[in-house]
Amino acid sequence: EVQLVESGGDLVQPGGSLRLSCAASGFTFSNSWMHWVRQAPGKGLVWVSHINSDGSSTNYADSVKGRFTISRDNAKNTLYLQMNSLRAEDTAVYYCARDQYYSNYYWGQGTLVTVSS
Amino acid sequence: QSALTQPPSASGSPGQSVTISCTGTSSDVGGYNYVSWYQQHPGKAPKLMIYEVSKWPSGVPDRFSGSKSGNTASLTVSGLQAEDEAEYYCYSYAGSNNWVFGGGTKLTVL
Q1: Measured between alpha carbons, how far is A95 from A59 in angstroms, rounded to an integer?
Q2: Is the separation of the CB atoms in A32 and A25 below 8 Å?
Q3: Which residues in A24-36 are b (16+ Cβ under 10 Å) and which e?
Q4: pLDDT above 80 for B1
Q5: Phi and psi dihedrals of A31, rounded to 5?
Q6: How many CA within 13 A on the CB side of residue B78?
Q7: Which of B91, B96, B102 sits opposite A103 (nearest CB)?
């Protein structure tokens, strides 16, 4: 059974940093593209970032480019999102998702990031 | 990276059919057959309902169907049931390893 478990969400001050993790199991993580998607309270889903299977290619939404970094450790079956220079508008539930057929085929349960003073 | 355009709301009575549209551009919806649809109930993670425009993941009932014409994709829910009441999002590949979601449609079963 595919499982994705996010962690690391917290309350952080504007300008601060946070690293999210996504522990994967039940599939060959090292062969899978992965995504981060976020959802602000009461708002819609927004694609944040993508990473290919070996981590050599990464892509970001314009809203986070230069502030967020996606990475992965295939030996640990773990996906990461390093978030720097956080803003109030980054407040959201962050989901990791496994890509299949250019869709988010499997999702984690999400982790809440709150940026507030 | 502009969001795809979905109607904010849709509704139908039990047993009826309802169609939700998703309009993009030739750079996303119109350019690739990589449109997917997601169902999200309040407080839950999204669930994949359709991928590659019209394919079903395992376990999704065939009451849900997808199609595309030009720059507009559509999700049709037939034989509406109470449990279909949820938010629905379209999602498209936009080239160069970028993706974009629609703004979401709240489906109400009357």
Answers
A1: 16
A2: no
A3: beebebeebebbb
A4: no
A5: -100, 0
A6: 7
A7: B91
